[in-house]
Protein backbone atom coordinates (compact mmCIF):
# COMPACT_ATOMS: atom_id res chain seq x y z
CA UNK A 1 0.00 0.00 0.00
CA UNK A 2 1.66 3.26 -1.08
CA UNK A 3 1.92 5.62 1.82
CA UNK A 4 0.47 8.46 -0.18
CA UNK A 5 -2.76 6.49 -0.67
CA UNK A 6 -3.42 6.52 3.06
CA UNK A 7 -2.63 10.22 3.24
CA UNK A 8 -5.02 10.86 0.40
CA UNK A 9 -7.67 8.63 2.02
CA UNK A 10 -7.44 10.49 5.30
CA UNK A 11 -7.79 13.82 3.51
CA UNK A 12 -10.47 13.22 0.95
CA UNK A 13 -11.33 9.53 0.73
CA UNK A 14 -14.83 8.10 1.12
CA UNK A 15 -15.59 5.79 4.01
CA UNK A 16 -18.90 3.97 4.20
CA UNK A 17 -20.18 2.24 7.33
CA UNK A 18 -23.01 -0.25 6.95
CA UNK A 19 -24.86 -0.85 10.23
CA UNK A 20 -25.70 2.29 12.20
CA UNK A 21 -25.71 1.02 15.74
CA UNK A 22 -23.17 0.78 18.55
CA UNK A 23 -20.19 -0.40 16.49
CA UNK A 24 -21.03 1.85 13.53
CA UNK A 25 -21.32 4.99 15.65
CA UNK A 26 -18.20 4.38 17.71
CA UNK A 27 -16.22 3.65 14.53
CA UNK A 28 -17.42 6.90 12.95
CA UNK A 29 -16.39 8.86 16.03
CA UNK A 30 -12.97 7.23 16.10
CA UNK A 31 -12.40 7.98 12.42
CA UNK A 32 -13.02 11.66 13.04
CA UNK A 33 -11.08 11.67 16.30
CA UNK A 34 -8.08 10.28 14.47
CA UNK A 35 -8.22 12.89 11.78
CA UNK A 36 -10.26 11.43 8.94
CA UNK A 37 -11.44 14.47 6.98
CA UNK A 38 -13.05 12.80 3.98
CA UNK A 39 -16.63 11.84 3.30
CA UNK A 40 -18.31 9.59 5.83
CA UNK A 41 -21.60 7.78 5.19
CA UNK A 42 -23.56 5.70 7.70
CA UNK A 43 -26.15 3.29 6.35
CA UNK A 44 -28.67 1.71 8.69
CA UNK A 45 -31.87 -0.19 7.99
CA UNK A 46 -33.53 0.92 11.21
CA UNK A 47 -35.20 4.34 10.94
CA UNK A 48 -33.55 5.47 14.18
CA UNK A 49 -30.20 6.92 15.01
CA UNK A 50 -27.91 4.58 16.98
CA UNK A 51 -29.39 3.49 20.27
CA UNK A 52 -28.31 1.22 23.08
CA UNK A 53 -29.77 -2.30 23.32
CA UNK A 54 -28.84 -3.67 26.77
CA UNK A 55 -31.37 -1.43 28.55
CA UNK A 56 -34.16 -2.87 26.35
CA UNK A 57 -34.33 -6.09 28.33
CA UNK A 58 -33.58 -4.43 31.67
CA UNK A 59 -34.59 -0.85 32.60
CA UNK A 60 -37.10 -0.62 29.75
CA UNK A 61 -39.10 -3.69 30.74
CA UNK A 62 -39.01 -2.54 34.35
CA UNK A 63 -40.50 0.77 33.26
CA UNK A 64 -37.41 2.69 34.35
CA UNK A 65 -36.49 3.93 30.88
CA UNK A 66 -38.46 4.65 27.75
CA UNK A 67 -37.88 2.25 24.86
CA UNK A 68 -37.85 5.29 22.60
CA UNK A 69 -35.14 7.08 24.51
CA UNK A 70 -32.06 4.91 24.64
CA UNK A 71 -30.15 6.75 21.90
CA UNK A 72 -26.42 6.57 22.43
CA UNK A 73 -24.63 9.74 23.46
CA UNK A 74 -22.12 10.96 20.92
CA UNK A 75 -18.51 11.29 21.91
CA UNK A 76 -17.95 13.96 19.29
CA UNK A 77 -19.33 15.58 16.16
CA UNK A 78 -19.00 13.13 13.27
CA UNK A 79 -20.24 15.19 10.33
CA UNK A 80 -21.63 12.20 8.48
CA UNK A 81 -24.18 11.57 5.78
CA UNK A 82 -26.85 9.44 7.39
CA UNK A 83 -28.82 7.00 5.28
CA UNK A 84 -31.25 5.67 7.85
CA UNK A 85 -34.21 3.41 7.23
CA UNK A 86 -32.62 1.89 4.14
CA UNK A 87 -30.93 -1.50 4.05
CA UNK A 88 -27.80 -2.37 2.17
CA UNK A 89 -28.74 -5.18 -0.19
CA UNK A 90 -25.54 -5.99 -1.97
CA UNK A 91 -21.82 -5.38 -2.24
CA UNK A 92 -19.69 -5.18 -5.36
CA UNK A 93 -16.15 -5.72 -4.12
CA UNK A 94 -14.37 -4.91 -7.35
CA UNK A 95 -16.35 -1.77 -8.14
CA UNK A 96 -16.24 -0.82 -4.42
CA UNK A 97 -19.92 -0.12 -4.26
CA UNK A 98 -22.70 -0.82 -1.76
CA UNK A 99 -26.17 -1.36 -3.18
CA UNK A 100 -29.15 -0.05 -1.26
CA UNK A 101 -32.74 -1.24 -1.03
CA UNK A 102 -34.00 1.99 -2.59
CA UNK A 103 -31.95 1.31 -5.72
CA UNK A 104 -29.18 3.74 -4.89
CA UNK A 105 -25.52 2.77 -4.90
CA UNK A 106 -22.85 4.23 -2.66
CA UNK A 107 -19.19 4.13 -3.62
CA UNK A 108 -16.45 3.78 -1.05
CA UNK A 109 -12.73 3.76 -0.79
CA UNK A 110 -12.93 1.86 2.49
CA UNK A 111 -15.91 0.05 3.91
CA UNK A 112 -16.78 -0.99 7.46
CA UNK A 113 -19.39 -3.69 7.93
CA UNK A 114 -21.13 -3.55 11.32
CA UNK A 115 -24.51 -5.11 10.57
CA UNK A 116 -24.71 -7.07 13.82
CA UNK A 117 -27.24 -9.80 14.41
CA UNK A 118 -31.01 -10.09 14.53
CA UNK A 119 -33.19 -12.18 16.81
CA UNK A 120 -33.77 -15.70 15.58
CA UNK A 121 -37.48 -15.88 14.79
CA UNK A 122 -39.81 -18.69 15.81
CA UNK A 123 -39.17 -21.59 13.48
CA UNK A 124 -42.72 -21.85 12.19
CA UNK A 125 -43.43 -18.57 10.43
CA UNK A 126 -47.24 -18.76 10.60
CA UNK A 127 -47.14 -19.36 14.35
CA UNK A 128 -44.55 -16.62 14.72
CA UNK A 129 -47.03 -14.15 13.20
CA UNK A 130 -49.65 -14.73 15.89
CA UNK A 131 -50.49 -11.60 17.82
CA UNK A 132 -48.62 -11.71 21.13
CA UNK A 133 -45.56 -13.57 19.83
CA UNK A 134 -42.62 -11.21 20.43
CA UNK A 135 -38.92 -10.95 19.75
CA UNK A 136 -36.54 -8.65 21.60
CA UNK A 137 -33.73 -7.08 19.64
CA UNK A 138 -34.83 -3.65 18.46
CA UNK A 139 -36.36 -0.67 20.15
CA UNK A 140 -39.65 -1.36 18.34
CA UNK A 141 -39.59 -4.89 19.78
CA UNK A 142 -39.00 -3.47 23.25
CA UNK A 143 -41.76 -0.88 22.93
CA UNK A 144 -44.20 -3.58 21.83
CA UNK A 145 -43.23 -6.00 24.59
CA UNK A 146 -43.33 -3.27 27.22
CA UNK A 147 -46.87 -2.30 26.19
CA UNK A 148 -47.95 -5.92 26.41
CA UNK A 149 -46.44 -6.36 29.85
CA UNK A 150 -48.06 -3.14 31.03
CA UNK A 151 -51.44 -4.42 29.88
CA UNK A 152 -51.15 -7.11 32.58
CA UNK A 153 -51.06 -10.42 30.70
CA UNK A 154 -52.28 -13.51 32.53
CA UNK A 155 -49.03 -15.29 31.76
CA UNK A 156 -45.90 -14.67 29.73
CA UNK A 157 -44.12 -17.60 28.15
CA UNK A 158 -40.41 -17.25 27.36
CA UNK A 159 -38.87 -19.69 24.89
CA UNK A 160 -35.17 -20.04 25.65
CA UNK A 161 -33.31 -19.33 28.89
CA UNK A 162 -30.21 -17.56 27.64
CA UNK A 163 -29.33 -14.15 29.05
CA UNK A 164 -32.02 -12.25 27.18
CA UNK A 165 -34.79 -14.74 27.97
CA UNK A 166 -33.78 -14.86 31.62
CA UNK A 167 -33.73 -11.08 31.83
CA UNK A 168 -37.26 -10.96 30.43
CA UNK A 169 -38.40 -13.53 32.99
CA UNK A 170 -36.77 -11.49 35.73
CA UNK A 171 -38.56 -8.31 34.64
CA UNK A 172 -41.88 -10.18 34.59
CA UNK A 173 -41.43 -11.45 38.13
CA UNK A 174 -40.35 -8.07 39.37
CA UNK A 175 -43.50 -6.51 37.96
CA UNK A 176 -45.66 -9.31 39.33
CA UNK A 177 -46.47 -11.08 36.05
CA UNK A 178 -46.68 -14.90 36.04
CA UNK A 179 -44.04 -16.33 33.72
CA UNK A 180 -43.07 -19.73 32.36
CA UNK A 181 -39.63 -20.33 30.86
CA UNK A 182 -38.86 -23.31 28.64
CA UNK A 183 -35.30 -24.40 27.94
CA UNK A 184 -34.04 -27.31 25.88
CA UNK A 185 -30.92 -27.70 28.03
CA UNK A 186 -30.92 -28.71 31.70
CA UNK A 187 -30.77 -25.18 33.11
CA UNK A 188 -30.75 -21.47 32.19
CA UNK A 189 -27.50 -19.94 30.89
CA UNK A 190 -25.96 -23.37 30.29
CA UNK A 191 -24.62 -22.49 26.85
CA UNK A 192 -22.85 -19.42 28.21
CA UNK A 193 -21.73 -20.55 31.66
CA UNK A 194 -22.07 -24.35 31.88
CA UNK A 195 -24.21 -26.63 34.01
CA UNK A 196 -22.72 -25.88 37.42
CA UNK A 197 -23.47 -22.17 37.19
CA UNK A 198 -26.65 -22.96 35.27
CA UNK A 199 -27.97 -24.81 38.33
CA UNK A 200 -27.51 -21.63 40.38
CA UNK A 201 -29.41 -19.66 37.75
CA UNK A 202 -32.18 -22.27 37.86
CA UNK A 203 -32.57 -21.91 41.63
CA UNK A 204 -32.60 -18.16 41.24
CA UNK A 205 -35.48 -18.40 38.78
CA UNK A 206 -37.61 -20.88 40.69
CA UNK A 207 -37.15 -19.07 43.99
CA UNK A 208 -38.37 -15.92 42.32
CA UNK A 209 -41.51 -17.64 41.19
CA UNK A 210 -40.60 -18.49 37.59
CA UNK A 211 -42.27 -21.66 36.35
CA UNK A 212 -39.07 -23.10 34.85
CA UNK A 213 -39.30 -26.08 32.51
CA UNK A 214 -36.00 -27.62 31.43
CA UNK A 215 -35.14 -30.47 29.09
CA UNK A 216 -38.17 -29.56 27.02
CA UNK A 217 -38.73 -27.93 23.67
CA UNK A 218 -41.69 -25.98 22.46
CA UNK A 219 -43.44 -27.95 19.74
CA UNK A 220 -46.08 -25.46 18.67
CA UNK A 221 -47.81 -22.19 19.44
CA UNK A 222 -51.58 -22.22 19.39
CA UNK A 223 -53.68 -19.23 18.37
CA UNK A 224 -57.31 -18.40 18.99
CA UNK A 225 -59.93 -17.65 16.36
CA UNK A 226 -58.82 -14.03 15.93
CA UNK A 227 -55.13 -14.87 15.56
CA UNK A 228 -53.93 -14.14 19.08
CA UNK A 229 -51.57 -16.58 20.73
CA UNK A 230 -53.28 -18.43 23.55
CA UNK A 231 -51.24 -21.53 24.42
CA UNK A 232 -47.83 -23.14 24.09
CA UNK A 233 -47.39 -26.87 23.50
CA UNK A 234 -44.30 -28.59 24.86
CA UNK A 235 -42.43 -31.77 23.97
CA UNK A 236 -43.43 -33.37 27.28
CA UNK A 237 -47.03 -33.02 26.09
CA UNK A 238 -47.89 -30.31 28.54
CA UNK A 239 -49.77 -27.21 27.41
CA UNK A 240 -49.29 -23.79 29.00
CA UNK A 241 -51.79 -21.00 28.47
CA UNK A 242 -50.14 -17.66 27.82
CA UNK A 243 -51.09 -14.45 26.07
CA UNK A 244 -47.56 -13.21 25.45
CA UNK A 245 -44.81 -15.45 24.09
CA UNK A 246 -41.26 -14.12 23.94
CA UNK A 247 -39.09 -16.00 21.47
CA UNK A 248 -35.56 -15.83 22.81
CA UNK A 249 -33.67 -18.35 20.74
CA UNK A 250 -30.45 -16.51 20.17
CA UNK A 251 -29.54 -14.66 17.04
CA UNK A 252 -28.81 -14.79 13.37
CA UNK A 253 -25.93 -12.83 11.85
CA UNK A 254 -26.89 -10.16 9.35
CA UNK A 255 -24.82 -11.38 6.43
CA UNK A 256 -27.53 -12.31 3.90
CA UNK A 257 -27.02 -9.07 2.03
CA UNK A 258 -23.44 -10.16 1.28
CA UNK A 259 -24.43 -13.37 -0.48
CA UNK A 260 -22.57 -13.62 -3.75
CA UNK A 261 -20.31 -10.68 -2.94
CA UNK A 262 -17.24 -12.88 -2.66
CA UNK A 263 -16.68 -11.94 0.97
CA UNK A 264 -16.09 -14.70 3.55
CA UNK A 265 -19.52 -14.10 5.06
CA UNK A 266 -21.98 -16.72 6.23
CA UNK A 267 -24.25 -17.78 9.04
CA UNK A 268 -21.36 -17.66 11.52
CA UNK A 269 -20.55 -14.07 10.66
CA UNK A 270 -17.81 -12.44 8.66
CA UNK A 271 -14.32 -13.76 9.24
CA UNK A 272 -11.62 -11.15 9.61
CA UNK A 273 -8.01 -10.97 10.73
CA UNK A 274 -7.00 -9.58 14.10
CA UNK A 275 -6.75 -6.17 12.43
CA UNK A 276 -10.47 -6.32 11.52
CA UNK A 277 -9.85 -6.78 7.78
CA UNK A 278 -12.45 -9.06 6.22
CA UNK A 279 -11.48 -12.27 4.48
CA UNK A 280 -12.85 -13.02 1.08
CA UNK A 281 -14.35 -16.45 0.47
CA UNK A 282 -10.94 -17.80 -0.56
CA UNK A 283 -9.49 -16.88 2.81
CA UNK A 284 -7.49 -13.99 1.42
CA UNK A 285 -7.55 -10.86 3.48
CA UNK A 286 -9.04 -7.77 1.84
CA UNK A 287 -7.50 -4.42 2.44
CA UNK A 288 -10.41 -2.09 2.06
CA UNK A 289 -13.23 -3.96 3.80
CA UNK A 290 -13.28 -4.02 7.60
CA UNK A 291 -15.65 -5.65 10.08
CA UNK A 292 -16.62 -4.92 13.69
CA UNK A 293 -19.13 -5.89 16.35
CA UNK A 294 -21.54 -8.79 16.64
CA UNK A 295 -21.28 -9.68 12.95
CA UNK A 296 -17.50 -10.19 13.05
CA UNK A 297 -15.51 -13.24 14.01
CA UNK A 298 -11.85 -12.81 14.52
CA UNK A 299 -8.91 -14.85 15.77
CA UNK A 300 -7.67 -14.22 19.29
CA UNK A 301 -4.15 -15.11 20.33
CA UNK A 302 -5.11 -15.63 23.98
CA UNK A 303 -7.67 -18.25 23.05
CA UNK A 304 -5.68 -20.50 20.76
CA UNK A 305 -6.32 -18.32 17.71
CA UNK A 306 -9.91 -19.49 17.70
CA UNK A 307 -12.21 -17.29 15.69
CA UNK A 308 -14.35 -15.71 18.38
CA UNK A 309 -17.71 -14.36 17.56
CA UNK A 310 -18.85 -12.28 20.52
CA UNK A 311 -22.24 -10.76 21.14
CA UNK A 312 -20.78 -8.43 23.71
CA UNK A 313 -21.39 -4.71 23.98
CA UNK A 314 -17.80 -4.00 24.99
CA UNK A 315 -16.48 -5.97 22.04
CA UNK A 316 -18.54 -3.91 19.61
CA UNK A 317 -17.03 -0.71 21.02
CA UNK A 318 -13.44 -1.93 21.18
CA UNK A 319 -13.48 -3.63 17.79
CA UNK A 320 -15.06 -0.58 16.17
CA UNK A 321 -12.31 1.62 17.59
CA UNK A 322 -9.60 -0.72 16.34
CA UNK A 323 -11.19 -1.16 12.93
CA UNK A 324 -11.57 2.59 12.49
CA UNK A 325 -7.99 3.20 13.53
CA UNK A 326 -6.68 0.56 11.13
CA UNK A 327 -8.80 1.84 8.26
CA UNK A 328 -6.95 5.10 8.08
CA UNK A 329 -3.39 4.33 9.06
CA UNK A 330 -0.27 2.88 7.48
CA UNK A 331 0.29 -0.84 7.78
CA UNK A 332 2.95 -0.65 10.47
CA UNK A 333 0.73 1.45 12.73
CA UNK A 334 -2.15 -0.99 12.71
CA UNK A 335 -3.31 -2.50 15.97
CA UNK A 336 -4.69 -5.97 16.64
CA UNK A 337 -8.10 -6.36 18.23
CA UNK A 338 -7.13 -8.44 21.24
CA UNK A 339 -9.86 -7.33 23.60
CA UNK A 340 -10.42 -9.36 26.74
CA UNK A 341 -13.98 -10.66 26.32
CA UNK A 342 -16.22 -9.25 29.04
CA UNK A 343 -19.95 -9.44 29.55
CA UNK A 344 -22.51 -8.36 32.11
CA UNK A 345 -26.10 -9.19 32.80
CA UNK A 346 -28.43 -8.55 35.64
CA UNK A 347 -31.42 -10.63 36.68
CA UNK A 348 -33.44 -11.21 39.83
CA UNK A 349 -31.39 -8.50 41.51
CA UNK A 350 -28.12 -10.35 40.90
CA UNK A 351 -25.25 -8.84 38.96
CA UNK A 352 -23.66 -11.43 36.67
CA UNK A 353 -20.39 -10.67 34.93
CA UNK A 354 -17.83 -12.69 33.06
CA UNK A 355 -14.38 -12.24 31.55
CA UNK A 356 -12.60 -14.50 29.10
CA UNK A 357 -14.36 -17.28 27.22
CA UNK A 358 -16.23 -19.53 29.68
CA UNK A 359 -17.49 -22.01 27.03
CA UNK A 360 -13.89 -22.86 26.28
CA UNK A 361 -13.36 -24.04 29.85
CA UNK A 362 -13.68 -27.67 30.76
CA UNK A 363 -13.25 -27.28 34.50
CA UNK A 364 -14.56 -24.85 37.06
CA UNK A 365 -13.35 -23.87 40.51
CA UNK A 366 -15.24 -21.65 42.93
CA UNK A 367 -12.52 -19.40 44.28
CA UNK A 368 -14.48 -16.80 46.22
CA UNK A 369 -17.79 -16.96 48.02
CA UNK A 370 -20.22 -19.85 47.68
CA UNK A 371 -22.67 -21.04 45.05
CA UNK A 372 -25.42 -21.41 47.64
CA UNK A 373 -25.14 -17.74 48.62
CA UNK A 374 -25.25 -16.66 45.00
CA UNK A 375 -22.28 -14.51 45.70
CA UNK A 376 -19.19 -16.08 44.26
CA UNK A 377 -16.48 -16.12 41.64
CA UNK A 378 -16.05 -19.18 39.46
CA UNK A 379 -12.85 -19.66 37.50
CA UNK A 380 -12.80 -21.74 34.32
CA UNK A 381 -9.78 -23.80 33.34
CA UNK A 382 -8.78 -25.19 30.00
CA UNK A 383 -5.78 -27.45 29.56
CA UNK A 384 -4.12 -26.35 32.76
CA UNK A 385 -4.61 -22.61 32.46
CA UNK A 386 -7.14 -20.02 33.50
CA UNK A 387 -9.38 -19.22 30.54
CA UNK A 388 -12.37 -17.35 32.02
CA UNK A 389 -14.12 -16.26 35.20
CA UNK A 390 -17.69 -15.50 36.15
CA UNK A 391 -19.01 -13.58 39.12
CA UNK A 392 -22.40 -13.40 40.77
CA UNK A 393 -22.51 -10.21 42.87
CA UNK A 394 -18.76 -10.30 43.19
CA UNK A 395 -17.61 -8.27 40.20
CA UNK A 396 -14.72 -6.55 41.87
CA UNK A 397 -12.59 -9.66 41.46
CA UNK A 398 -12.93 -9.87 37.71
CA UNK A 399 -10.21 -7.40 36.88
CA UNK A 400 -7.81 -9.64 38.78
CA UNK A 401 -8.90 -12.73 36.86
CA UNK A 402 -8.70 -10.86 33.57
CA UNK A 403 -5.00 -10.37 34.32
CA UNK A 404 -4.68 -14.07 35.19
CA UNK A 405 -6.15 -15.01 31.82
CA UNK A 406 -3.78 -12.64 30.02
CA UNK A 407 -0.82 -14.20 31.80
CA UNK A 408 -1.96 -17.74 31.06
CA UNK A 409 -1.91 -18.40 34.81
CA UNK A 410 -2.08 -22.07 35.83
CA UNK A 411 -5.35 -23.82 36.60
CA UNK A 412 -6.39 -25.07 39.16
CA UNK A 413 -5.54 -21.74 40.76
CA UNK A 414 -2.86 -22.13 43.37
CA UNK A 415 -3.23 -19.05 45.53
CA UNK A 416 -5.17 -19.26 48.77
CA UNK A 417 -7.92 -16.71 49.29
CA UNK A 418 -9.29 -15.37 52.51
CA UNK A 419 -12.88 -16.19 51.64
CA UNK A 420 -14.65 -19.17 53.07
CA UNK A 421 -14.76 -21.75 50.35
CA UNK A 422 -17.36 -24.40 51.00
CA UNK A 423 -16.86 -25.67 47.47
CA UNK A 424 -13.35 -26.67 48.47
CA UNK A 425 -10.22 -26.36 46.44
CA UNK A 426 -11.18 -29.02 43.93
CA UNK A 427 -12.07 -28.14 40.38
CA UNK A 428 -15.17 -29.80 38.99
CA UNK A 429 -16.33 -30.34 35.43
CA UNK A 430 -17.82 -27.05 34.18
CA UNK A 431 -20.45 -29.13 32.43
CA UNK A 432 -20.97 -27.45 29.10
CA UNK A 433 -23.31 -29.19 26.73
CA UNK A 434 -21.91 -30.87 23.65
CA UNK A 435 -20.83 -27.94 21.45
CA UNK A 436 -22.37 -29.58 18.40
CA UNK A 437 -25.84 -29.31 19.97
CA UNK A 438 -27.63 -26.00 19.70
CA UNK A 439 -28.07 -23.95 22.86
CA UNK A 440 -29.79 -20.66 23.18
CA UNK A 441 -27.82 -17.50 23.18
CA UNK A 442 -24.40 -18.59 24.34
CA UNK A 443 -23.24 -15.05 23.37
CA UNK A 444 -19.77 -16.37 22.68
CA UNK A 445 -19.31 -18.74 19.81
CA UNK A 446 -16.13 -20.58 19.12
CA UNK A 447 -16.05 -20.95 15.40
CA UNK A 448 -12.56 -22.25 14.81
CA UNK A 449 -11.62 -25.80 15.56
CA UNK A 450 -13.39 -27.38 18.49
CA UNK A 451 -11.48 -27.24 21.77
CA UNK A 452 -12.64 -30.82 22.29
CA UNK A 453 -10.70 -31.89 19.23
CA UNK A 454 -7.37 -32.81 20.78
CA UNK A 455 -5.87 -34.00 17.53
CA UNK A 456 -5.61 -30.58 16.07
CA UNK A 457 -2.74 -28.62 17.54
CA UNK A 458 -2.13 -25.21 16.09
CA UNK A 459 1.10 -23.32 16.76
CA UNK A 460 0.89 -20.29 14.52
CA UNK A 461 3.83 -18.54 16.14
CA UNK A 462 6.39 -21.27 15.50
CA UNK A 463 8.30 -21.34 12.27
CA UNK B 1 -29.48 14.35 27.78
CA UNK B 2 -28.32 11.01 26.60
CA UNK B 3 -26.04 8.85 28.61
CA UNK B 4 -24.64 5.37 28.62
CA UNK B 5 -22.75 3.47 31.29
CA UNK B 6 -20.12 0.96 30.31
CA UNK B 7 -21.25 -1.73 32.71
CA UNK B 8 -18.15 -3.78 32.03
CA UNK B 9 -16.17 -1.03 33.70
CA UNK B 10 -18.73 -0.12 36.36
CA UNK B 11 -17.75 -1.50 39.73
CA UNK B 12 -21.03 -0.71 41.44
CA UNK B 13 -19.53 1.83 43.78
CA UNK B 14 -22.88 3.67 43.71
CA UNK B 15 -21.20 7.04 43.63
CA UNK B 16 -23.41 8.08 40.72
CA UNK B 17 -26.57 6.93 42.49
CA UNK B 18 -25.56 9.08 45.45
CA UNK B 19 -24.94 12.17 43.33
CA UNK B 20 -27.82 11.80 40.83
CA UNK B 21 -30.40 9.52 42.42
CA UNK B 22 -33.07 10.37 39.85
CA UNK B 23 -30.90 9.03 37.05
CA UNK B 24 -29.00 6.16 38.64
CA UNK B 25 -30.10 3.54 41.15
CA UNK B 26 -28.66 0.36 42.54
CA UNK B 27 -30.69 -2.74 41.87
CA UNK B 28 -29.83 -5.52 44.24
CA UNK B 29 -26.37 -5.55 45.81
CA UNK B 30 -24.27 -4.43 42.90
CA UNK B 31 -26.23 -3.94 39.67
CA UNK B 32 -26.70 -0.43 38.41
CA UNK B 33 -29.83 0.61 36.55
CA UNK B 34 -30.09 4.02 34.98
CA UNK B 35 -32.28 6.10 32.75
CA UNK B 36 -30.38 6.56 29.46
CA UNK B 37 -32.32 9.74 28.81
CA UNK B 38 -31.89 12.05 31.77
CA UNK B 39 -34.18 15.07 31.98
CA UNK B 40 -32.58 18.44 31.34
CA UNK B 41 -32.96 19.56 34.96
CA UNK B 42 -30.58 16.77 35.94
CA UNK B 43 -27.75 18.26 33.93
CA UNK B 44 -25.72 19.49 36.83
CA UNK B 45 -26.14 16.36 38.93
CA UNK B 46 -25.34 14.19 35.95
CA UNK B 47 -22.18 16.16 35.25
CA UNK B 48 -21.13 15.62 38.84
CA UNK B 49 -21.80 11.89 38.59
CA UNK B 50 -19.79 11.64 35.36
CA UNK B 51 -16.88 13.41 36.99
CA UNK B 52 -17.06 11.41 40.20
CA UNK B 53 -17.34 7.89 38.82
CA UNK B 54 -14.13 6.26 40.02
CA UNK B 55 -13.76 4.16 36.86
CA UNK B 56 -15.05 6.77 34.39
CA UNK B 57 -17.72 4.43 33.15
CA UNK B 58 -20.31 7.09 32.31
CA UNK B 59 -20.49 8.81 28.92
CA UNK B 60 -23.01 11.60 28.50
CA UNK B 61 -23.38 14.10 25.71
CA UNK B 62 -23.84 17.78 26.03
CA UNK B 63 -21.57 17.94 29.07
CA UNK B 64 -18.75 19.93 27.52
CA UNK B 65 -16.76 16.96 26.38
CA UNK B 66 -16.71 15.25 29.75
CA UNK B 67 -17.81 11.96 28.22
CA UNK B 68 -15.37 12.28 25.38
CA UNK B 69 -12.52 12.84 27.72
CA UNK B 70 -13.34 9.93 29.98
CA UNK B 71 -13.74 7.40 27.19
CA UNK B 72 -10.60 8.63 25.48
CA UNK B 73 -8.39 8.22 28.49
CA UNK B 74 -9.82 4.81 29.31
CA UNK B 75 -9.08 3.68 25.78
CA UNK B 76 -5.51 4.86 26.07
CA UNK B 77 -5.11 3.04 29.35
CA UNK B 78 -6.35 -0.16 27.78
CA UNK B 79 -4.06 0.18 24.80
CA UNK B 80 -1.08 0.89 26.97
CA UNK B 81 -1.37 -2.41 28.82
C1 LIG C 1 -32.05 -7.04 24.59
C2 LIG C 1 -30.55 -7.05 24.54
C3 LIG C 1 -29.81 -7.03 25.72
C4 LIG C 1 -28.42 -7.06 25.69
N1 LIG C 1 -27.73 -7.03 26.87
C5 LIG C 1 -26.39 -7.07 26.86
C6 LIG C 1 -25.65 -7.06 28.07
O1 LIG C 1 -26.22 -7.05 29.16
N2 LIG C 1 -24.30 -7.09 28.02
C7 LIG C 1 -23.62 -7.11 26.82
O2 LIG C 1 -22.38 -7.15 26.82
N3 LIG C 1 -24.29 -7.11 25.64
C8 LIG C 1 -25.66 -7.10 25.64
N4 LIG C 1 -26.34 -7.10 24.45
C9 LIG C 1 -25.58 -7.19 23.19
C10 LIG C 1 -25.18 -5.83 22.62
O3 LIG C 1 -26.31 -5.01 22.52
C11 LIG C 1 -24.55 -6.06 21.24
O4 LIG C 1 -23.33 -6.73 21.44
C12 LIG C 1 -24.32 -4.77 20.48
O5 LIG C 1 -25.54 -4.14 20.18
C13 LIG C 1 -23.58 -5.04 19.18
O6 LIG C 1 -23.48 -3.88 18.42
P1 LIG C 1 -23.29 -3.93 16.86
O7 LIG C 1 -23.24 -2.50 16.44
O8 LIG C 1 -22.20 -4.84 16.49
O9 LIG C 1 -24.59 -4.65 16.28
P2 LIG C 1 -26.16 -4.25 16.38
O10 LIG C 1 -26.41 -3.47 17.61
O11 LIG C 1 -26.89 -5.51 16.14
O12 LIG C 1 -26.35 -3.28 15.15
C14 LIG C 1 -26.36 -3.65 13.81
C15 LIG C 1 -27.20 -2.65 13.06
O13 LIG C 1 -27.08 -2.89 11.66
C16 LIG C 1 -28.36 -2.88 11.07
N5 LIG C 1 -28.33 -3.66 9.84
C17 LIG C 1 -28.33 -5.01 9.71
N6 LIG C 1 -28.31 -5.38 8.42
C18 LIG C 1 -28.28 -4.24 7.70
C19 LIG C 1 -28.23 -3.96 6.29
N7 LIG C 1 -28.20 -4.93 5.39
N8 LIG C 1 -28.21 -2.67 5.91
C20 LIG C 1 -28.23 -1.67 6.82
N9 LIG C 1 -28.26 -1.89 8.16
C21 LIG C 1 -28.29 -3.15 8.58
C22 LIG C 1 -29.24 -3.46 12.15
O14 LIG C 1 -30.59 -3.19 11.94
C23 LIG C 1 -28.69 -2.79 13.39
O15 LIG C 1 -29.24 -1.53 13.60
C24 LIG C 1 -27.74 -7.09 24.44
C25 LIG C 1 -28.48 -7.12 23.25
C26 LIG C 1 -29.87 -7.10 23.29
C27 LIG C 1 -30.65 -7.14 22.01
S1 LIG D 1 -20.15 5.72 39.97
FE1 LIG D 1 -19.35 4.58 38.22
S2 LIG D 1 -18.64 2.64 39.07
FE2 LIG D 1 -19.99 3.58 40.58
S3 LIG D 1 -22.00 2.69 40.18
FE3 LIG D 1 -21.88 4.63 39.08
S4 LIG D 1 -21.13 4.05 37.04
FE4 LIG D 1 -20.72 2.35 38.38
TrEMBL record, chain A:
A Pfam short name: Pyr_redox_2
The molecular function terms in GO held by this entry are: oxidoreductase activity, acting on NAD(P)H
One term under GO cellular component: cytoplasm
Q: Ranges for the Reductase C-terminal domain? A: 343-411
- Entry cofactors: FAD
Q: Which residues form the FAD/NAD(P)-binding domain?
A: 14-320
Q: Where is this region: Disordered?
A: 414-448
Keywords (A to Z) from UniProt: FAD, Flavoprotein, Oxidoreductase
Q: Which PANTHER family match?
A: APOPTOSIS-INDUCING FACTOR 1, RIESKE DOMAIN-CONTAINING PROTEIN-RELATED
**Protein name per its UniProtKB record:** Ferredoxin reductase
Organism from which the protein derives:
Streptomyces roseochromogenus subsp. oscitans DS 12.976
From TrEMBL, chain B:
**Molecular-function GO terms, alphabetical:** 3 iron, 4 sulfur cluster binding; electron transfer activity; iron ion binding
| UniProt name for this protein | Ferredoxin
Give the protein's function: Ferredoxins are iron-sulfur proteins that transfer electrons in a wide variety of metabolic reactions.
- List UniProt keywords, sorted A-Z: 3Fe-4S, Electron transport, Iron, Iron-sulfur, Metal-binding, Transport
Q: Which domain of life is it from?
A: Bacteria
Q: What is the species listed in this Swiss-Prot or TrEMBL entry?
A: Streptomyces roseochromogenus subsp. oscitans DS 12.976
Q: Is Glycosyltransferase there in the keyword field?
A: no
The question of whether Glycoprotein is a record keyword is answered with no
* Co-factor(s): [3Fe-4S] cluster
Tell me which PANTHER family the record gives: FERREDOXIN
Pfam families in alphabetical order: Fer4_13 (PF13370)
Which residues lie within the region annotated Disordered? 62-81
